[in-house]
Amino acid sequence: MNEWVIKGATIVDPDGTRQGDVAISGGRISEVGADLSGERVLDASGCIVSPGFVDLHVHLRQPGREEAETVETGSRAAALGGFTAIVAMPNTEPAQDSVAVVEQVRRWGEEAGLCEVLPSGCLTLDRAGERMAPIAELAASGVRLFTDDGNGVQDPLLMRRIMEYSLDLDVVLAQHCEVASLTAGAVMHEGCCSSHLGLPGWPAVAEELMVFRDIELARLTGARVHFLHLSTARSVALVRQAKADGLRITAEAAPHHFTLTDEMLRTFDATFKVNPPLRTRDDIAALKVGLRDGTIDAIATDHAPHPAALKEQPLDTAPPGMLGLQTALPLALGELGLDLPEVVALLSWRPAAIAGVSDRHGTAVRPGAVANLAVFDPEATWTVDATRLASKSRNTPYQGRTMRGQVRHTVFRGTPVVIDGEAQR
């Protein structure tokens, strides 16, 4: 007898769209068809069942800043958002530049049991941008994606050497694109709004120069490079041309960058401070085109929790970052103007391929596949209430906003970890 059956859903996966029940047994999909039976049933009437979502960019804060988030609370938020795998950024304390720290983060993820936690590794020791981290050793321990996120590698020679070193390893180098000398003291996008408010600005060219540099270094070395949280129109155009040239380039965009503009900072509310900053309507339009035409491969949340005491500081001292795991799906459904299968691709199998987990996440809903699944109602509406989000922090920029699209169930390794919108652990 099947342990679980998801009944009444429309299946959306890399194979297309179709009706069918999905039966689960022994952690895997056992049957897909009509009128299946099992010991327990997950009602999915009016819902979509798809491969679970994969987030390439999540800050879990542990170790070192557990007052903001832990692996457990962050993975719970992920499961509630339909994610079955998340890549944990390495800007922890200590940083994820050693096998010992990486293995500890991985163990915390296994203990939580809500989704797969994939620790990233640092590009440089302590993310200081001075010496290369032990990338081969970390890769041997299972790390797939390397980044100094929060910092861009400023030294072009060091970045070239890292790219060259990576060629014999099956890894992805993910760059935070920011020329730091151009952004010192900046609190928001440099433009009309920052000038009007008298606030120091973060110019778009600070991102674009590093995007251009690393495209050319990738052209020189043949390395595989992923650009984190693209935010400007010119960055999108640079990546589009690099892909047309056949380079091994991928990119992501965060929901806040395709939904919110720099005008939100007119209230001086640090909830809207993020790195890279919120940009202009023209930049948002370019990001949406990039997501539609395949220039941008994935939606990644850049989930960045902070305690209220830090976010309530003035703009110049408050840390950048926003929550994102539980609002990614409805924002993608409501803001991009894409067909539903295209949205699911950006959240599921395309990021799964970049993360190197396509053997178990983002796979077609077929018998034999690992049962990592998201079940969501694309028409359900709900209002964001920060106090009811799973994160330990409350810094969502969407407080009070009514959204369309809600996760109903999440199945991780064959076990429902979210049922009817409630986490089971």
From TrEMBL:
Q: List the PROSITE patterns hit by this protein, alphabetically.
A: DIHYDROOROTASE_1, DIHYDROOROTASE_2
SUPFAM superfamilies per record: Composite domain of metallo-dependent hydrolases, Metallo-dependent hydrolases
Q: Does the keyword Flavoprotein apply?
A: no
Residue span, Dihydroorotase catalytic domain: 48-233
- Any one of the GO BP annotations: pyrimidine nucleotide biosynthetic process
Cross-referenced InterPro entries, in alphabetical order? DHOase, DHOase/Allantoinase_Hydrolase, DHOase_cat, Dihydroorotase_CS, Metal-dep_hydrolase_composite, Metal_Hydrolase
Database matches in Gene3D superfamilies: Metal-dependent hydrolases, Urease, subunit C, domain 1
Pfam families associated with the record: DHOase
* One cellular component (GO) term of this entry: cytoplasm
Could you cite one Gene Ontology molecular function of this protein? dihydroorotase activity
User: Cofactor(s) for this protein?
Assistant: Zn(2+)
UniProtKB keywords: Hydrolase, Metal-binding, Pyrimidine biosynthesis
Q: Which HAMAP family match?
A: PyrC_classI_B
What is the protein's name according to its record? Unannotated protein
